[in-house]
Design goal:
Blueprint: H1 4-32, H2 41-61, H3 74-91
Helix pairs in contact: 1-2, 1-3, 2-3
C-alpha cells in the first residue's frame, strides 16, 4: 500500500501544487500592481513570497531594450519558467 513510488508521487504532486500557488501569486501581484501602490499591505505580503522567484528574471530583463517603455517582463518570464517546470514534473508521474 505504501511504498517509495507513492511517496515520490505525493512529493511531486505537492511540488506541482506549490508551483501553481506561486504562479497564481505572480499573476495576482502583477494585476494588483495596476491598481494598488507598492506599499499596500496586500502587495507587500505577496511580494515576500514572489520576489525570490521573480528577482533572478528581473536581473536578466534589465538588459532588455524595451524602447523606453516602463514594462517589467520579469513576472512573465518567471511565470513561463514555473509553467515549464510544472509541466516537466507532471510528466514524471
Amino acid at each position: 500500500m505504501f511504498g517509495p513510488n507513492l511517496i515520490f508521487r505525493q512529493l511531486i504532486l505537492s511540488v506541482i501544487w506549490f508551483i501553481r500557488i506561486l504562479s497564481w501569486g505572480i499573476v495576482i501581484n502583477s494585476l494588483l500592481s495596476w491598481v494598488l501602490e507598492p506599499m499596500h499591505p496586500v502587495r507587500m505580503f505577496l511580494r515576500r513570497f514572489i520576489e525570490p522567484i521573480v528577482a533572478p528574471f528581473r536581473a536578466l530583463t534589465s538588459r532588455l531594450n524595451t524602447s523606453g517603455l516602463p514594462i517589467d517582463f520579469s513576472p512573465l518570464f518567471a511565470y513561463i519558467a514555473l509553467s515549464i517546470i510544472s509541466s516537466l514534473l507532471s510528466h514524471l508521474l
